[in-house]
Amino acid sequence: MTYIKPSLKNLPGKLKIKKGDKVKVISGKSLDHVGVILTAIPKENKVIVEGANIIVKHTKDRQSRKPNTTGANSIIKGGRIEQEAPLHASKVMLICPACNRPTRVGYAYKEGTEKLSRRKYRVCKHSDCGKAID
Ligand SMILES: [Zn+2]
Q1: Which of 18, 25, 54, 80 has minimal Cβ neighbours within 10 Å of its Cβ?
Q2: pLDDT tops 80 at residue 51
Q3: pTM for the full model?
Q4: CATH for 1-64+77-95, among 2.30.30.30, 2.40.128.20, 3.90.400.10, 3.40.50.2000?
C-alpha cells in the first residue's frame, strides 16, 4: 500500500471565494463566463456559479406510484431541466469589486484594539489595487 501525501493545495475547507462573490470562469466549457457564486461547497472545493457549467437533465414521463382518484395511474410528465453543475474552485477567479479585474486572493490582517483580535480579510493581489475585498 502506498501512502499518498495529501496536497495542501487541495485541502478541503479552504475556499477563498464564497457565496455572493462575483467570479470569472477561467477553464472548461463556460470559459470567460462571469457570474455570482450561488453556493460554495468547501468540503469538495467546489462552487456553483450562476449561469455557468449548465447541464441539461432529461427526465422521461413516468407513472406515479400512487393511483389517482379515478383508479388509473397518473403520469408524471418528463422534460428538460437546466441547472448549474458545481465547478472546481480552481476553475474560477474572483473579480475584484474595486478594480473589476479577475484576481488572485491574498489575505491581510487588521489589528484589533486587543491582543489576539486580529481579523483576517481578503485583498486584491493586483499591485496597483490592493483593496480589501470583503
Ligand atoms: Zn483590485
Answers
A1: 80
A2: yes
A3: 0.74
A4: 2.30.30.30
Distance set, CA 43 to CA 10, 11, 26, 36, 48 (Å): 10, 9, 21, 19, 13
CA 58 to ligand 1 center in whole angstroms: 41
Show Cβ contacts of residue 61 under 8 Å, excluding neighbours closer than 6 positions: 75, 76, 77, 78
pLDDT the model gives residue 62? 87
Separation of CA 20 and ligand 1 centre (Å): 17
pLDDT cut 90: percent of the chain above it: 63
CA 19 to ligand 1 center in whole angstroms: 19
